[in-house]
What does this fold into?
Amino acid sequence: MRNLVGRIALAAALAITGLAGFAVANRAAAQDQNCSVWLVESSRFMKVPMGAFMPDRAFIPGSTDQYHNINTVDLPVNVGVIKCGNELVLFDSGWKQQDYLKMTGSEHWAPLPDQLKVLGFDANNVTKIVIGHGHWDHAGQLSDFPNAVIYIQREELNGIEWALNYPNPKIAAVNTAPGGCRRTPACGYPPLTVAEIYGKVLNGKAVIVNGEAEILPGVKIHPAFRGHTAGSQLLEVPTSIGKLVFGSDTYSSWEGIRDWMAANIQQTDTVQQFLAYEKCYKITGGYQNCICAHEPLSYTDGYPITKNSWVALNGGRMAEIALAAGEKTHKPQ
Amino acid sequence: MVVPHFRAVVLSGIIAALFAMMGVATHRELSRQVAPSRAAAVKPEPELKPLSAEEEGYAAALWPIHSEVVEVSAVDMSFAGIAYITEHHDAQRLAAKVMTLRDRFRTAADQARLIPVPAAMGQVHDQYLEALALYETASAEMLKVAADGKVEHLIEAQTMSQRAAEDLLKVGDVLWPGEYKPN
It folds into this structure.
C-alpha cells in the first residue's frame, strides 16, 4: 500500500514537472518568436524649417555649428511593416494623398496598399494597425485595410474629445487658422481621419487600449502619453537584431533621441517625450533600435538601422530592417 | 510514315521551347526595366492657383463657419458614435447629442448661404452646401437608432459622413490650400 502511494506520488511529481517544463518551454518559444520588419516611406514633407522640427537646432545663417547650420529638412513619413508568423502588422498608416488633399508640400506619396504590394504583401492580409497617435498624417488610409484591427489608446480619444469641446476656439482638435495648426496644442484631427477611426469602431475592428497591451507574443504596446499627443503609444517588437521600439511622432527624430533633444512639439510634454526616449534605451539597450517617424536621415547610413534601403514607388524609399528565421529578403535584387 | 511524324513532333517541341525561352527572357528583361523606371518616376509638384481678392474674401468669410462649427461638429459626430458603441450604449443620449449637431449643420448651411459667392466659386460653394446637407442627412440617419436601436443606421450614417468629410477637403483644397501641415 505504501509502495502504491509512493508510486502515485512519484508519477504526479513527474507529471507536474513535465507540465511545468512544457509551459516554460512554450512560453519561451512564444517570447522568442522574432518578427521581420520593414520601414516604408509613405510620403515626404519637403523643406520643413529645421527650427520648426527641432527648436534646439534652429538655423542660424552663417553658423558652422552642426546644430545650427541646417536651414530646412525633408521629413519622411515612415510606416512600420511588421510580420510575426502569419500576422502582418502596421505601425502607423500614413495619410491618403488625393487630388483634393495634396497641397502640403509633400512628395513621393504612393498608396500604402501599393507599397505593400511592391514589398510582397497584400493589404487584405494586414491583421493589425497600431496607431502611434491619431494625427491625420499617421492614421490615414484605414479604409484601405478592411481586415485590420486598429489599436488606439483611450487617452488619445479622450484628448481629441477634450480639445474638441474646449470653449476657447484657439485650443481645438481641428485647425484653427487657414494654413494649419499654427502650433495650437491639440489640433491635427480633421473630420476624415476621425471618421475613418469611427468606421473601424463601428465595424468591430478597433481595440481601445488602456495603457500597456501585448498584441502578439513579445509585441507590446507601451503608453507614451503626452510624448507627442495625449494618447501617444510605442510598440516594442522582438527581432533577430534585438528589440526594436517604434515611436511614431514621440520618436520624430532619431538624432533627437541620440542627442536628447525635443522634436516635433505638438501637444508634447517634453519631459514625457524624454521619458519615452529613455524607454527605448531601457528596452533596446541604446538608441540604435529606436524607429522614428520623421527622421530626415532615414534610409541612409546616417541612421544605420534603416540603411539597407532602396527606392520604390514614386521615389518613396523602403528599408529592410530585420528578418526572422526563414524569412527571405523582400529587397529587390 | 512514322519518321516524318516523329521529326515534326521534335521540331515543334524545339520551336515551342525556343518561344518559351524567348518569352521568359523578354519577361525578365521587361521586369528589370520596369522596376527602375517606376522607382525613378516622381509626380510633379501640383501648382497652387492664387485666389483673386474677391475669392479671398469669400474664403475668409466661410472660414469661421468651417473651422469653428462644421469641422468641430463633424468630428463631434464621429465621437458621438464612438461613445455610444464603446461606452454608454444609451440611444436617447446619442439622439440628444446628434440633434444638436444636426441643428448646427443646418445653421451653418444657412449662414454659408448668406455669403456673397464670386462667380468662379459657384461650384465650390455648391459642393460645400452639399457636404453640409450630407452631414444633416447622416444626422437624421443616426437619430433612427433611438427608434429601433439598429446599429446599421450608424454604419450608413458613417459612410455618408466620411463622404462629406472628403467633400470638405475638396473645398478646403481650393479655399485654404495647405490647411493640413505635418503633424
About this structure: DSSP finds five helices and no strands in chain B. Residues 54 and 154 of chain B are 40 Å apart (CA to CA). The first helix of chain B runs from residue 2 to 40.
